[in-house]
Amino acid sequence: MKWLSVLLAFTLFLPLLAWDQQDYEIFDLVSALESAEGKGTTFYTFLNLTKGASLKDINTAYKKRSLQLHPDKNPDVPHQKAQERFARLGVIKDILKDSEKRKRYDYFHDAGVPTWRGTGYYYSRFRPGLGSVLLFLAFLTNGIHYLILHLNRMQDLKRIDRFRQSARMVAWGPRLKPQEGRKIVKVPLGGNMRSFEDSDEDSDATPRRRGPPPANYLRMAVEGSSVWILTDDGDSIVLDETSASSPSWRRTWIPSLFRVLVGKLFTKKVEGETEDGVSEEEEEGVALKLGEEVEGEEGEGEKKKVIGVAGRAGGRRRKVVKPRK
Prior knowledge:
Helix content: 55-70%
Distance between the termini: 95 Å
Number of helices: 11
Radius of gyration: 40 Å
Strand order of the largest sheet: 1-4-5-6
Mean pLDDT: 75
Largest sheet: 4 strands, antiparallel
């Protein structure tokens, strides 16, 4: 089935590989003809011919049509438009008189001109500049980054499910029969559960470990359908699907870079000021003033305490300023 899909894809993309400069010229001419004469106009209908017309028929139809479309015969039509129409007639006649070019056109006449004509066609027509290319690459890599975030989430969900199953196996045994109460277990990070075995072949008791405990493991708790990770601080972190980071366009590299640049722009501190916007001289003056006021009211011991607090204003420790006597 896989090889069949590859073969089908190759068959669909084979015409893309076969397109050359002559095909691109036909694409352009078909688009211009339909734009000027109406949707569905073909080389044959433009010359009032059928698809099986002979070379003699083509020459006769061209002479008759050229007399009708000559710019001098159409004074009411804008000169530029009349010239383009007359020149288009000559190109169409040349294609139909050339056996190879006519064969290529007949193929697209029957199969239809493709909507997507390949990157080479559009690049040769529009010639994007450096800025356009860089912008395209930026958005392309941003989309790839989003796809990577999605794949990472899928991997995280598989890892979470594996640890949940491992914790239940350690707590309830290989048969995974739920037990009452909260079970505290140690799950190896490598996921190797062979070191666990039931206490009895027909028992549902909590399995015990055979041999020394692993060097790397997670302390986890199991109760009913809920599983937690226990940290060294005594906190419990629920382990479920919400533990995996969801992919978001905000987490891709373009929005992330924008937030970092904006954050640095607006958090830039003015030189000579502390984090709270107060200059060092003003901060020391406040410390001195506080010390003098407290000295007059509360005494020497309370004075040092307040000065110490003021000396740390602004988020960092300052040199304690002693009040003048």
